[in-house]
Amino acid sequence: MVRGSAISAVILICVFYTPGSLADQPLPVVLRGSLSLSDLPQGVQKRISPQMTREQIANMLRQQPSVTLQGATLTLQPPADERSIALAFDRVVLQDGSKVVTNGVNLELVAAQLSSDEGEITAFSAESIVPNPAPQRQDGVAGLNAGTVVLDTTLGPNKLFVRLNGMPGQPGGPGAPGPTGAPGTRGGDAADHLLDCAHGGGDGGPGAKGGTGGSGGKGGPGGSGGKLILEGPVASQRLLIDFVARGGQGGAGGSGGDGGQGGPGGDGGSGSTYCRGGRAGPTGPLGDPGPLGGPGQPGHDGSITAQ
Asked: What pLDDT, on the 0 to 100 scale, is given for residue 81?
């Protein structure tokens, strides 16, 4: 999983549709499999100026490529300049459950029309949603926020699924094991009379109980759910969007460290000419396990707005 603070980039999706002759429209580029931005046609990474009128935008989009994702997954990565990713198309078709995975990057997508056949825009892939626990004695890091998607388009005729759930927080790391208990005391040495044994060597004392294990690390807070902003024609098509943006779950607290090993028993006292030495003392008992770490706070739910 990715560590650190949430990504500040923004992804804006704008789709505009101007009716025209199909004969005048170029054939769409059909893409399949696992895709990145570099697999898209040249010229689609284009940001719309806020000063452009709707007519100017529509004219510009007619010159843009059309793309059909066919059972494909387009995965975005944070741009080096931490700006949003802006994509502009004539038409976009998400066929056979195709997905656009933002990875929490804010997205601006502009297109004349967007059609969906079980298509989905999602913040994170299923593989990235379950983070590995933090290292021993460390707290979990916060889950990534889902980011913002701005969608300006005409949808239809089927629903578009948008899942902008925050990433769960990382589970805390396990606590450190407790220290080994202190060794037992040494037994007293044997003593002789002039010609016989006065007393044998004493047995060593028992080792002390092992120390308590360390506390588990605290779970990281969950990332915030994303924001979906509808602009243009799609603002009146809310019923064609199946939207979920839950805050990520807080990471579970780490397990307490194991109790320390019991201390070794003390050595038995030495024997003498006529007496035997003492026996070593017993090993001390294991220490108690450490307490669990506290869970992380859940992230805030996202929102959908129409402008």
From this structure: 67
Under-70 pLDDT residues of the chain? 1-26, 81-82
Question: What is the pairing mode between strands 197-199 and 191-192?
Answer: antiparallel
Element (H, E) at 59: helix 54-62
- For residue range 242-300, what is the model confidence (pLDDT) as tens digits? 999 999 999 999 999 999 999 999 999 899 998 999 999 999 999 999 999 999 999 99
By the 8 A CB rule, do 16 and 154 touch? yes
The per-residue b/e assignment along 74-93, b for 16 or more CB within 10 angstroms, e otherwise, is bebebbeeeebbbbbbbbbb
For residue 19, the model assigns a pLDDT of 39
Q: In the chain, how long is the greatest CA-to-CA distance?
A: 124
How far, in Å, CA of 220 to CA of 252, rounded? 8
The one-letter amino acid code at 185 reads T
What span, in angstroms and rounded, lies between the C-alpha atoms of 294 and 213?
16
Report the alpha-carbon distance of residue 201 to residue 134 in Å, rounded.
51
Is residue 250 within 8 Å of residue 172, measured between CB atoms?
A: no
Q: Rounded to two decimals, what is the model's pTM?
A: 0.79
The separation between the first and the last C-alpha atoms of the chain, rounded to the nearest angstrom, is 34
Spatial neighbors of 281 by CB under 8 A, at least 6 apart, are 184, 185, 187, 203, 204, 205, 206, 207, 265, 266, 267, 268
Q: Which residue, among 60, 122, 58, has the nearest Cα to 94 in the 3D structure?
A: 122
Burial of 213 per CB tally in 10 Å (0-12, 13-18, 19+): buried
For residue 246, the tally of other CB atoms under 10 A from its CB is 19
